[in-house]
Design goal:
299 residues, alpha/beta, Rossmann fold, Histone, subunit A, Helix Hairpins, 6-stranded parallel beta sheet, 13 helices, globular
Length: 299
């Protein structure tokens, strides 16, 4: 492997990618960079399975627990932060090891960003208010009327539909126009990509075990503290895997056993969606059936 290459290590939740990244970083004079959409928030160390303090002492970790839950972190915002971190690591003669399950984050960094303008806070607030007033289905119809390319989005994809409404409202141009403009990579130098793709039975068993251990490790208290902040339910952190399920438990809508069963089911579904995305959108990434196999393959 090229000594200057940046590593991209991807995989579904509970696949063991964080352990693989730690092993490789320690062997290769590397620093680990978070490429997970939820581990960037500081509020949910347990719920998002962020690296433990012991892991963080074993190798430098960057972009973990960086943002407050009241903030929004898009793929674009993350990619700009990550580009600076990767450049810093390389400048010090070390190897960046990016790890996560957010495929769009890797793509944004390696392929570049569409030059989509930022929208003012008042327009973002107006978009949210309009969706609440019209309802999800009618709001989608309005967005599609203004930007037909958004017809691919379902009613429930509030984040992307809101973004599309905001952009055309603020600029007079549809979001799809900006997405069609040329892009350029945000990082320099070679990149080595690899994905952990375990057998389904193995992955699902790990998902179930992670959900159970999360509840035992204090996830309920973590979500209780998050809910006490009274944050906007539309914020990404409020929709993190584990938050809605545990919130239902805290509201008395289900027993602890029912909450665990729902969390396990949703964790398996989330892992399946991640796996499907990478198989279709990153078909050329080398695949390994375990963290151990990936580490051996990249040595």
């Amino acid at each position: 492997m090229n000594e200057c290459a940046t590593l991209f290590i991807a995989g579904p939740t509970a696949s063991g990618k964080s352990a693989a990244a730690l092993a490789l970083a320690r062997e290769m004079n590397g620093e680990i960079v978070n490429a997970d959409a939820m581990q960037v928030y500081r509020d949910l160390r347990i719920v998002t399975a962020r690296p433990t303090p012991a892991d963080e002492r074993a190798a430098p970790h960057r972009l973990y627990g960086l943002l407050d839950g009241a903030e929004r972190c898009s793929a674009g915002r993350w990619a700009r932060m990550a580009a600076g971190v990767v450049a810093d690591i390389l400048a010090r003669g070390k190897r960046p090891v990016l790890v996560g399950g957010s495929g769009l984050y890797f793509r944004a960094l390696a392929e570049g960003l569409s030059p989509i303008p930022e929208t003012p806070p008042e327009i973002r607030a107006a978009a949210q208010a309009r969706r609440e007033r019209l309802g999800a289905a009618a709001f989608r119809e309005e967005v599609v009327a203004r930007d037909p390319a958004m017809a691919r989005l379902p009613d429930g994809d509030a984040q992307r539909l809101l973004r599309a409404w905001e952009v055309v409202e603020a600029t007079g141009e549809p979001l799809s126009h900006f997405q069609s403009l040329p892009r350029a990579p945000l990082i320099d130098g070679p990149v080595v990509r690899a994905m952990i793709d375990p057998p389904r039975e193995t992955l699902y068993a790990r998902c179930d075990a992670r959900a159970a251990s999360m509840l035992e490790a204090g996830a309920v208290e973590e979500v209780r503290a998050l809910l006490a902040r009274g944050l906007d339910p539309a914020l990404p952190v409020m929709k993190a895997l584990g938050v809605p399920e545990i919130a239902g438990l805290l509201r008395g809508e289900m027993s602890r056993g029912d909450a665990l069963a729902r969390l396990q089911q949703n964790t398996r579904r989330f892992a399946k969606r991640q796996t499907t995305w990478f198989r279709h959108q990153a078909a050329d990434w080398p695949r390994y059936d375990s963290a151990e196999a990936l580490v051996r393959g990249l040595r």
